Amino acid sequence: MPTEMKIPAPFDRVNHAIIGGFMFAAISLAGCSSAPVELPAKPASERAASSHQTSRQALPSATNRDITRFNDPHYIAIDPAHDRADAPLVLFMAGTGGKPRDMPFFPALLRAGHRVISITYNTGEAIQQVCPANPDTECAAKTRAKRLYGTNTINVIDDEPQDAIVPRLVWLLQYLDREYPAEKWGRYLDRTGKVVWSNVIVTGQSQGAGMAAYLAQEHTVARAVLFSSPWDSYGRPPTLAPWLSRTSATPLSRWYGGYHGKENTAALLGRAYAALRIPPANIRVWTAEPASMNGPNPYHGVGVSRLNSAENFAFMFGLGDK
User: Which residue, among 319, 113, 119, has the nearest Cα to 204 in the 3D structure?
Assistant: First the structure.
């Protein structure tokens, strides 16, 4: 459980200013949560750096009163000492069963001037739970669109429009801009209230990485960073979902992906990344070994854990380019 702490104004607002002390605990494969990767202690340098950062939580229902489900707090982080207007916002989407929380690579992103939002959404049924047996070959695309935008063209999930990721992001940015006007969160929205995707890095793990890939195909984002997904497919042997081969609005040079070479779906991930046309030079295959082999796919969460190297994180997010 996170520890609530009193924080001096202006950060103590509506009981949503909570210092985050989270670790990624839900590691998923094909919609089934597996046991967490056993992690080493957080380095002293990382603990020291986090003391300069401001992290807070905001309930989705505080941003829009129509929200009644999937109401775990959004996680928001900013480092006032390093915050840069020209550094894109990082939108992180957790995997199946996951919830918003601090991640091992967030401190490095904050030191580089980025802001981070880990957004709450329905991380329930994964695409590979509901679509492989569906006769509609566009099931994966329709399901991702429903979960992202609230469009209702398929009934394999019961998500409602107010549960969708993109509307929730818009409402959260509007809320933050009202509550913390000096921080100018409104700069990530245009005059019509739409997300300025060119100023957003989309990223996620497992189901969340698939959502990031779908967004990057449809919008010109600052960067797409995929951890161990997508591998949307159907049939035996697996046929990749058609949407993976669509034309990308985001230049291919901005796509980055990584997965562990021993993941259960490593070969399928390699095929999916090729279908997305991610440049081979922009793909990393992790090799770090978990301390214990927990769950049916113990390598699936290594990429977003502290077992992965700082160099890999810097490469994926382009931190060495700053």
Answer: 119
| Sign of the alpha-carbon torsion through 64, 121, 167, 220 | positive
Does the residue 104 lie in any domain?
yes
More confident residue, 36 or 254: 254
Exposed / middle / buried, residue 48 (Cβ in 10 Å: 0-12, 13-18, 19+): exposed
First-last CA distance in the chain: 35
In degrees and rounded to multiples of 5, residue 49 shows phi and psi of -65, -40
Query: Distance of CA 220 to CAs 133, 147, 173, 189, 224, Å?
Result: 32, 19, 19, 14, 10
How many domains, the chain?
A: 1
Residues 242-285 have pLDDT tens digits of 999 999 999 999 999 999 999 999 999 999 999 999 999 999 99
Identify whether the C-beta of residue 116 lies closer than 8 Å to the C-beta of residue 169. Answer: no
Write out the residue range of the structural domain in which residue 121 sits. 45-321
- 9 found inside a domain: no
Which tens digit of pLDDT belongs to each residue from 137-181? 999 999 999 999 999 999 999 999 999 999 999 999 999 999 999
Q: Give domain status of residue 29, yes or no.
A: no
CATH number of the CATH domain containing 204? 3.40.50.1820
C-beta pairs of 130-136 under 8 Å, 24+ apart in sequence: 130/31, 130/156, 130/157, 131/156, 131/232, 131/234, 131/241, 132/233, 132/234, 132/235, 133/234, 134/234
Residue 122: inside a domain: yes
| DSSP label at residue 86 | T
Amino acid at residue number 272: A
Which residue is associated with the tokens 């046991």? 35
